[in-house]
Amino acid sequence: MGLISEAVPRLAVLVGLVGLAACSPAEQPQRLDQSRRIISLDYCADQYVLKLAPREQILAVSPDAEKTFSYMRGYAKGLRQIRPQAEDVLVLQPDLVVRSYGGGPNVTAFIERIGTPVLQIDSAHDLDGVRNTIAAVAEGLGQQARGAAVIAEMDARLAALHALPDAPAALYTTPAGVTSGPGTLVHEMLRAAGLANFEQEPGWRSLPLEHLAREQPDLVAAVFWGATNHYDSWSAARHPIARRQLRERPVVSLHGAWIACGGWFLLDAIEALATTGSGETAQ
């Protein structure tokens, strides 16, 4: 459900909350904690807030913060969780709201209208984009030093990877039978691991079954989403041609939390791919 709900029963609540936000500082309730109070609205925003913001400043995170596809789920334990709905956000009177997609397309204008700034996290399409996102969010949180440290660790881990001869071709696949070609962060991830992307068509698309019938990749990068894999549903990944690749080719199992959002944690996937591509055993 989007942040701006159209449900009639909530109208009175929203009017009251907006009125509260419009009060002068002297009229507003006294806060127990005068430090910055931060709310993140979705699990992509959660990762950055949990990594970069001091824990005592985190007022609330999204309900997905502890799910298996949340990389920073361990750090989310014990924190308040909040639904991305107007009355839930406004009643807590945050000093800053951080979002990637949470709350729907009109959330930023709505929240800023009542005087609370919103820090928007945009999608990254390559590793430079990830670096820029980390730096931008760190600056928005007033934590530039923490952001610089995360970027430095990323670069050090990338520099430690050894170039692979002849760039083995890797086929990326999800349980739903979707793969990814040039112009995506997954493509850049494969390249950073020293691999060539078996899929040469740009963007996201179904597994190229006809291509797989004629040619085979050197390895398969299969993302694992835990309980959300939906193995009981049909997809291109269940086609005999695709299943043969999973049986006959080396498979790198990628945790969904490594690649669900563009972030520094993509390095876990890159290192796993580079290890298998070099012929070593992945951990």
Structure explained in plain terms:
- With 283 residues, this protein is of the alpha/beta class.
- The chain has helices at residues 11-21, 43-52, 73-76, 86-91, 107-113, 127-140, 144-159, 185-192, 209-214, 240-248, 256-259, 266-277; strands at residues 38-40, 58-60, 96-99, 118-120, 169-173, 178-180, 196-197, 204-206, 219-224, 251-255.
- α6 runs antiparallel to α7.
- 37% of the residues are buried.
Keywords, separated by commas or semicolons:
283 residues; alpha/beta; four-stranded parallel sheet; 10 strands; 13% strand
Topology:
Blueprint: H1 11-21, E1 38-40, H2 43-52, E2 58-60, H3 73-76, H4 86-91, E3 96-99, H5 107-113, E4 118-120, H6 127-140, H7 144-159, E5 169-173, E6 178-180, H8 185-192, E7 196-197, E8 204-206, H9 209-214, E9 219-224, H10 240-248, E10 251-255, H11 256-259, H12 266-277
Parallel strand pairs: 1-2, 1-3, 3-4, 5-7, 5-9, 9-10
Antiparallel strand pairs: 6-8
Helix pairs in contact: 6-7
